[in-house]
Design a protein that fits this description.
The protein is mainly β. Helices cover about 5% and strands about 45% of the residues. It has 2 domains: about 270 residues, TolB, C-terminal domain (Neuraminidase); about 110 residues, Immunoglobulin-like (Sandwich), CATH 2.60.40.2550. Strands 26-32-31-28-29 form a 5-stranded mixed sheet. A 4-stranded antiparallel sheet has the order 3-2-1-24, with no helix packed on it. It has a 4-stranded antiparallel sheet with strand order 4-5-6-7, with no helix packed on it. The radius of gyration is 27 Å and the shape is elongated.
């Protein structure tokens, strides 16, 4: 895949497509972050409780690479990929992308000057980033996820960094250095209608929208390093409120996909998580090496539709069909209640007859047949009830999981038709 080269100028794009990946609240996946191994910085990931840390990149000469820094990881909306920056193409920083497990690394840009601060659009079709390619300082660009069609959104002739989309894809928050300090601004997705969200004598940086789009968390440096604190404000810049801070200074805050937690790092280079109101802070790394720049992986459940005839005939099986939006492992189970065939028997003497389980691999958009059968004893009970004019009733349900562990469920009610009585 060819890396993109940017052209100077400022031809604005028409905007992003509507957000379509996942719903709020989402599920919290792993946390990607930057770790310093004593020579350079690499990208790693861990579970939200700090367990199972895994190195995703390795650039040391011992691993066949060059000493280079990989930084600023950001997950795609489906949680399948990570975009990041690297100076492997020394001396400049370029934008790269890889699978969430660290495989299939691809360089997306190849420009004179640094490309930095990448993140995906909410629909997963574009990547927002900054570049010095225009020659007037860092400006904000957007490109396709394969590096094509890179287009500038700003022409501020000053440093513009930290861009991030709102969850609906309609607005972009970013940071501008105005010659005195850093302020947070917002603009439409096409670069129009720029408005300030903060305006003070402090350095405000690293804005990140809450998943519902109502709030922005950011860092504010009131007195120079390392005294940065984490603040939260409304998406329009109103109600700027500090959150409880650590003594060492707090940086790089990011909301969890469910909006309930915030991950950040301290100047002591540990990664912590806390509730969205700043309470219940927990240190996840709390040991060498130095760790920073956390970014939470969204787990968006596959959309699966389970369907089947509400009235079925056979006591030997219940049939259904499942269709999913993505690759998913689907397990189907069911239960039918077989009333006692003897006349006058009470419902309390009914028998529960389990169906399945059945497990199938479902391909995206391809209906998969499910056949759930009772055991021999259960089949006899159902058949006996049908012959007595009874209608065994129950349900079929599925649980579906994608390759990242995100889960979905669906069910439908079913009953068996009674056998026609011979006159």
């Amino acid at each position: 895949m060819a890396a993109a080269t940017l052209a100077a100028g400022c031809a604005l794009v028409a905007g992003t497509e509507p957000a379509g990946a996942g719903t709020f609240p989402g599920a919290n996946g792993r946390i990607a972050f930057v770790t310093y191994d004593g020579t350079d910085t690499e990208i790693a990931s861990m579970n939200p409780d700090g367990s199972e840390m895994t190195l995703l990149t390795e650039n040391s000469p011992a691993a066949g690479g060059v000493d280079a820094d990989d930084q600023r990881p950001a997950y795609s909306p489906d949680g399948e990929r990570i975009v990041f920056t690297s100076n492997r193409d020394q001396p400049d920083r370029e934008i790269w992308v890889m699978d969430a497990n660290g495989e299939n690394e691809v360089q997306l840009t190849d420009n004179a000057g640094d490309d930095n601060y990448p993140s995906f659009s909410p629909d997963g079709r574009r990547i927002l980033f900054t570049s010095e390619a225009g020659g007037t300082g860092e400006e904000i660009f957007v490109m396709d996820t394969d590096g094509a069609n890179a287009t500038p959104l700003t022409n501020l002739t000053s440093t513009a960094v930290d861009p991030t989309f709102s969850p609906d894809g309609q607005r972009i928050a970013f940071v501008q250095y105005d010659g005195f300090d850093n302020e947070i601004l917002a603009m439409d997705a096409d670069g129009q209608n720029v408005v300030p969200l903060t305006n003070n004598a402090h350095a405000d940086r690293r804005p990140n929208f809450s998943p519902d789009g109502q709030r922005i968390v950011f860092e504010r440096d009131p007195a120079g390093p390392p005294a940065s604190d984490i603040f939260v404000m409304n998406a329009d810049g109103q109600s700027q409120v500090p959150l409880p801070s650590t003594p060492m200074g707090d940086f790089n805050p990011v909301f969890s996909p469910d909006g309930m937690r915030i991950a950040f790092n301290t100047s002591g280079d540990d990664i912590l998580v806390m509730d969205a109101d700043g309470q219940n802070q927990t240190n996840l790394t709390n040991s060498p090496p130095d760790d920073a720049e956390p970014y939470w992986q969204p787990l968006n459940a596959p959309v699966c539709d389970l369907s089947g005839e509400a009235k079925q005939k056979s006591a030997k099986q219940v049939s259904a069909t499942v269709t999913c939006s993505e690759d998913a492992l689907v397990t189907a189970t069911g239960t039918l209640t077989a009333p006692k065939a003897k006349r006058g028997a009470s419902d309390s003497k009914s028998k529960q007859v389990p169906l399945g389980p059945v497990t199938v691999d479902v391909q995206p958009g391809v209906p998969a047949a499910l056949v759930l059968a009772p055991d021999k004893k259960g089949s006899k009970l159902l058949k006996r009830a049908q012959k007595a004019g009874k209608k065994p009733k129950g349900s079929v349900s599925i649980s579906a999981a994608d390759d990242l562990g995100a889960q979905a469920a669906d069910s439908f009610a079913v009953k068996l038709k009674p056998k026609k009585q011979k006159k």
